[in-house]
Amino acid sequence: MKRGKILTVLPVGLGLLLGGYLTYAALGSDKTSGDSPPGRALSDIPVMVRAVDPSSPTSNGDVFVVKDGKEIRHSDRLACQRVYYAGGRGICMGVAPSGVDYTASIVDSKLRVVHTIPLTGLPSRARVSADGKFGAMTVFVGGDSYVESATEFSTRTAIFDMATGKRVASLEEFAVTKDGKPFDAVDFNFWGVTFAPDSNRFYATLATGKHHYLVEGDIAGRSLRVLRDGVECPSLSPDGKQIAFKSRVGKGDYWRLHVLNLTDLKDHAVAETRSVDDQAEWLDDKTLVYSDGENVYTVPADGSGEEQLLIPDAASPVRLEVGSGGA
What we know:
single chain; mainly beta; 6-stranded mixed beta sheet
């Protein structure tokens, strides 16, 4: 994509600068966003993304941070399939130098690699606690005896100490309770960790049979408690009061983004009607930011309005605290 094209098709304003500059300077794509909705002004909220551009493998996966429409961080040393950052530390999950295995890099506030962790499967989800103390990573793995087909995958999710790069625990090792009673099954799968503000608590998805439970976890206690069914890839709002998640529609792989109130565990759909297979992020307490695999969008969390293109040719969006090391 040429910068001149972007300047002629996107409206003047901060959304233009963010979408146009990222796509031109970072991704080098030949695609045009002329049919996309206008970008949204970010005010002073910095956002980290990874570049998505299959036509340009050399830039695909590059990590960028943008604030007020201006690039303030760029690392072409990282090639990430999933990225997350908080509290001065980040996770970049991607392909190992061998080209056949997968690895995770823990990076510092300058996006420099400080620890490297071999992964046992295909990168799926990553999150870091707000204080940068803990990180969580989910990978897809094959070979579990309970799966019905050799083409099906299970998940593995682990918590890591971000300062040392050492594994703290696997969620498969946690004790689970449901309705106050021990709960266990051979086909337990966990994914989509999202940390609470105190970093010891977190939420995640527990799948078993045809159920996708929202669970609340305690790292120190190595315990998980089932809250309700029908929640995949939870994401806690900055104020800790709401959880965005993807809700499965029908029997196929089609999901609608929903928002759940933690007080009564009731939820509602947001205005985005397309299937979104992503762990949404919160831009602020009222706005979700997410990717459809090709572009990054925002949508109001209360179900009003409509989706808006935020950053073309990008994925894995991360809201950063103003003044944080990554911003």
